[in-house]
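Justification of computing resources. Each target in the renewal requires a structure prediction run like the one illustrated here; the chain below, 435 residues long, is used simply to show the kind of job we budget for.
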Amino acid sequence: QTDDDISDRLHYYYTTTFLLLTAVLVSLKMFGGRPIECWLPAEYKSNWEDYTEMYCWARSTYFVPIENELPEVEDRVKSMVSYYQWVPFFFVLVAAMFYAPCLFWRLVYRTSGVRLKCIMSFVNDKSNLQPAIRRSNIQGLAAHLSSIFRHRFTCTSTTQSICQKFLNFRFYEAFLTYLYIFVKCLFLINVVFQMFLLNKFLQTDAYGIYGYGVIADLLSGHAWTESTNFPVVTYCDLQIRVLGNVQRHTIQCVLVINIFTEKIFILLWIWYTVLAVTTICSIFTWILASLPLEQRKKFIVRRLELADVNFKRHLYEAELDEFVRKYIKMDGIFVLRMMSIHSGALVCTEVVDIMWEQYMAEIGQRETKYNGQMLYPEHYVDPHTTKLDELRLSVSPSPTKRIEEENLTVKQALLRKTSVLVPLVSREEVNEETN
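Resulting structure tokens:
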């Protein structure tokens, strides 16, 4: 869906799908095929074979190395091997564990009032290919996002009490960002736990870390040591009551299913390693891109520079700082990054550009009350002016000076916007415009 990135989908979608398909295939082999083949003595009749194999499969077998003698009857229970019977259920359980962080993310983030799925569906609507509809939708979306971000509170002493902040934490300015990073950490914890579990499940004395030891043997051309938890050749004690006497027969069997099961677990170990590395890189990427203020400002600047060919950051340093801190805030950057991932950088650029224009219009309306002719009177300082406003007044020149520095006429100012994405227009619409 449209509320995650490729790293998340590798966990909850691709891995879960692989595990469920594997569980189905192994179940078909176990319950619809011949998962075990046993060698029977010559005195056994042919119709005994199916019963013997079914008995050994249901009662479990025990493993003894071929070079060792069989232990005493009472000691054979200690070597019983029955894990293979639970492999399909194990895969289903692991698949649920991989999907659980995604389910938690989607259940919790919707309480914040930000509907990521609806926003992305609105942006990716096919009707946006028409120019008029596209302009209207982008403007409506920008206004909607501005209203959402504006009402998310920040950690200031004048906002609310500590208790109220805690109860309304889902409306905190960085709630979505912190929640998303936390969910990614849950993905990482789960995959590391699965690697540890597989290592204990497949461990042999020949390897310290089973998966890496197998890969090293394959690269060096050596045959890897089979896991004692998934042996191929096992033994089964068949007890038959004949004329009131219980007779015990020891039969040697081959667990065909374990030939496939062990290979699947080795592939899973390699895949888990790739997932762990990918998730670690994704976590650090999101942290470095979302938490530092300078990185968030760079994200907005890149979008504004793409939308406005004459945008100069040094002319809008104070406004840019307030726009990122108080207008869009941290969750706004998160939503815009998701928009870039799922809808493209150009669509996100248009939305950011309209939000920037709305913000600059609000700045103009807020400051024209001091002087009807100049937006930034150099001789006037409001006693209620914030530090950020003082920084803007001291650093940023007035709009009049800005236009003089850029040497733009009114016509040039209207033409400074560049079209970042040309919508598809049908031939009929072109003919109507030309006529």
